[in-house]
Amino acid sequence: MRNFTRSRELFAEALNYIPGGVNSPVRAFRAVGGQPFFAERAKGARVWDVDGNEYIDYVGTWGPAILGHAHPPIIRAIQKAAEHGTSFGIPNALEVRMARLIREAVPSVQKVRMCNSGTEACMSAIRLARGFTKRDKIIKFDGCYHGHTDSLLVKAGSGALTFGNPDSAGVPASFTQHTIVLPFNDVDAVKAAFAANPDQVGGIILEPVPGNAGLYLPKPGYLEALREITQSDGALLIFDEVMTGFRLAFGGAQQRFGIIPDLSCFGKIIGGGLPVGAFGGRAEIMDCLAPLGPVYQAGTLSGNPLAMAAGITALEELQGGNVYCQLEERAQQLEEGMHLAAKRAGVPVQFNACGSMFCGYFTDKPVHNLSDAMHSDRARFAKFFHSMLEQGVYLAPSQFEAGFISAAHSADDIDKTVAAAAEAMKGL
Ligand code: HOZ
Prior knowledge:
Distance between the termini: 18 Å
Helix content: 25-40%
Shape: globular
Strand order of the largest sheet: 4-10-9-8-7-5-6
Order of helices and strands: HEEEHHEHEHEHEHEHEEHHHEEHHEEH
Bound molecules: (4S)-4,5-diaminopentanoic acid
Radius of gyration: 21 Å
Largest sheet: 7 strands, mixed
Number of domains: 2
Structural class: alpha/beta
């Protein structure tokens, strides 16, 4: 059995000063039972806790660590940038370089505004869509999580779903009266919503590959249908690519699936592990933002030089495309290994994967949307999670989060992970 003495001490102390002992709910391990471990350091595909336990990490700081933890070029870029000052609140050259890189990678983005988190990016994109179309209603999908903005915290995924409160307390009903929530992968539901709200829907926001209720994929033709419906109605299509951007391909899910949204939201990878967000899209829409237009959005730390330096370095390394081939290979190795392990153990598992993102659901039925995901046996997941942790593999401590493979995961790491999963499944 692993020793967690120091983690336990820190958690006991944290509970005195931090609500639930954590600064983001899922980290508290409440969905799987037990207590969180506290990180000491992370390097490549590994995390070490304060008791010296080592883990192969598939959380990857919830997505950003696509090149592995503490990637030397990123660390050097941050150090160099810090020597020139940690924040200016004045335009700086790195912001321009970052904007150009994003624009080159994602052709639907003609102009981009940097902010500080994925939450900010989605909140601002929604405001912009409403300002541009002069329509108030927004469609979102149940299980999709777009950060903790009031109007989007309705039937949300991630932590909100993990703890059974997909609608948060503290959000007045009037704040969400313009949010229409529909099931994912159901084109008819979208058509019906547009028919019932003529000329009122400002936009549809979605994770093109939802990764905050586990992971499920858009059915063939689904994203195309959303594009067509929004275009013919005059509503905007907003892709929340906070997780999928620069991960499912250099140009994100929109490149992988060949769809051109009007607006896109980014975060995670574009900060190289530092806090960042961005939203961008067609120039005529983006130019509605202040100081050019009437839609207000701002931020003291937006375009922060450290985050820009880290993010630029990450994007420049990803640019060639070789990393993505390796990620796909590792993902396939993991997927095949997991299928085999589950089959041998006689445990029903739906292993969903897209690029380097994955999730295993303990159910015998395919998972295409939130209601399918809810059929997963969460008690089984919790048991599986703890067995994996004991064997040195760290998965997200919730059934409703995706796993992330990084360029630092070796074929040997994947083999070890599959062997651990086979062992864990024997005990389920
Ligand atoms: N639940 C978020 C990811 N989908 C963030 C979790 C965290 O940073 O603790």
